[in-house]
Amino acid sequence: MKLKNTLTMIGFAMAMGGAAHAQWTVDDPATPEPKHYDMSVYYSSTHAKGKETEQLPNVVLKYGALDNVQLTLQTGDLYRRAGKSPAVAGMADTILGAKLRYQKENKHRPQLAIGASVKMPTADPTRKLGNGYMDEKIWLTAAKSFGRLKLVGQIGDAIPAGAAAQNNLFYGGYFTYQTTEHLILGFQLAGNTPAAPRAHEEF
Fold this sequence. Notes:
The protein is 0% helix and 60% strand. It is an all-beta fold. Mean pLDDT is 86; it is low at 2-23.
């Protein structure tokens, strides 16, 4: 199993007609209200085995198309450096997604939703900012609140394209705790099974 050190810093989040949410790797089954949107702008940095990837800004726009139906657009700029190779920067891949929350939370049952996304290869593969292929993901996510504590879990299947990649499962969960009216603390664990031949599980 390979461990990755990832630091995510929230720049700002805003919502029209609803509360803004922090951006997590693990998806929350909640959806914006119909005809309202939730936008997050954040910075992420990943370091693993001599490789460094930074994304700023990373923009995620979520739109409530219908009751319990969310459409998602994610894009941004990417900075990448591997070993002694020169650093490169440019547009990242663009992700289009949709999510259906088919069960709302109540006292006895959690929220449940299914989601799917398509990665559009807008990053330049000749500069190693992307692989130049269209990839898909499908997933199931659940959440349950207990007073100020919220638990979220997710499992899904990633379907990458290209000879150097293979189908893999991704999974994870997080919890948040509302300490005050304006402060929420959280902790997340996420990973995936090997995404390529001879690769290791990442956690």
